[in-house]
Amino acid sequence: GGHSSAGHGHGRAARGDNRHDTRVNSFSIVREGEMSPRKLGMWMQTVCQLPPGHGTIFRIKAILAVKGRPFKHVFHAVMDVADEDVAGTWAEGEKRICKIVFIGKAMDQAFLRK
């Protein structure tokens, strides 16, 4: 009968690992202020070519305030297909923010928030 308790221990650990690693989840980043066009380009390159070990991104949707541009910059990516567009202009007195939503699996949030 002694073996059954050890078996339970394994089951618990495996379930914990699964919950941590394989679940599809989402998180968002919201920052006040604008980002420079150069930083925007570097960021897009990074998220579109995420290094191994940083998780898998299924979808990104972002509305960004880019310095020197009156329009809301919309960035949308599904797997390896990315699309950029502009939405309406920022309203007079509207707080300029960058909002990014990531949906994926085992994503390295600390890495993506940089």
Q: What's the SSE blueprint?
A:
Elements (H helix, E strand, L loop, with lengths): L1 H20 L2 E9 L4 H12 L7 E10 L5 E8 L2 E9 L7 E9 L3 H4 L2
Antiparallel strand pairs: 1-5, 2-3, 2-5, 3-4
Short description:
It contains 3 helices and 5 strands.
Q: How would you describe this protein?
A:
This protein has helices at 2-21, 37-48, 109-112, and strands at residues 24-32, 56-65, 71-78, 81-89, 97-105. The chain is 32% helix and 39% strand. A 5-stranded antiparallel beta sheet has the order 1-5-2-3-4, with no helix packed on it. It is an alpha+beta fold and 114 residues long. The longest helix has 20 residues, at 2-21. A hairpin with a 5-residue loop joins strand 2 (56-65) and strand 3 (71-78). Mean pLDDT is 82; it is low at 4-19.
Strand runs, count:
5
N-to-C series of helices and strands: HEHEEEEH
| Sheet with the most strands: spatial strand order | 1-5-2-3-4
What fraction of the residues are assigned to beta strands by DSSP? Answer: 35-45%
What is the 3D form? Answer: elongated
Structural class: alpha+beta
Largest sheet: 5 strands, antiparallel
Task: State the share of residues found in helices, binned by percent.
Answer: 25-40%
Per DSSP, the total helix count is: 3
How far apart the termini lie comes to 51 Å
What ranges have pLDDT less than 50 throughout 5 or more consecutive residues? 4-19
* Rg value: 19 Å
Mean pLDDT comes to: 82
